[in-house]
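hiii, so i know i said id send this last week but things got crazy w the move. better late than never?? heres the sequnce for the chain we talked about at the cafe, plus the structure i predicted for it. fair warning i was half asleep when i ran it
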Amino acid sequence: MVEDTLNSSGTTSEKKRNPFGKKKKEYVGEPPLNLNDYEKPFKNAKYSTPKKYKLLKQILMMDRNKTDVPIDAPLYMNIEAPPSVYPRKKYCDITGLKAIYTDPKSGLRYYDSTVYKYIQEQTQSTLQGYLGLRNAAVNLK
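okay and structure toks below
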C-alpha cells in the first residue's frame, strides 16, 4: 500500500502505509521496554501459522463420539478385518530381506546364494533356532 503526498516544494513523495492502520514508531539506539509499540520490519504481515494436524488420540475420540455411524462400519477402533486376498509375503530368515528361495533340507527361506552358503555351513541346532524364530515347528534330522 503506497500513499502519494505533496511536499512543500510541490513534488509528490511516496510513503509506505501500515496495513494494520496504526502507524508505529521506529526506534534508534537502545530498544525500548515495550517492543509492541514499535514497527518490526523483519516480520511478514501475510504470515499465517501452518495447519495443525490431529493426533491419533483425537481421531479415536472423534470416532468414538459418532452416533450416526452403523455398527459394522470400519473405524480406527476396529481391528477386525477380512483376510487378505494376496499371498503372504515371505522374508529371508537370516537377513530379513524378501525371500525368493527356500532351502530344501532345512526349509529356511533365503535371499541369495551368499545366504544359502551361510545356511549350509550352520549346524542343525542353529537352523532349528532360525525356524523357531519364524514359529515353523519343524524337527530337522
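btw The beta strands are 2-6, 12-16, 101-102, 109-110. thought thatd interest u
miss u guys!!
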